[in-house]
Amino acid sequence: MKNKFLSFAAVSLLAMAGCRNDGDDAQIIDQVVHIYFQNAGGEDLLSKDAKPGFREVHLKDLGGIRDLVSLGNAKIARDDAGKYFAEYIAGAKRNLTDSLNPEQKFYRSEMLLELKKDSATDITRDTMIVLYEWTPRKFSVKSISYNRKCVFKKSGAEPNAFTIIK
Question: Its domain of life (predicted)?
Answer without folding.
Answer: Bacteria
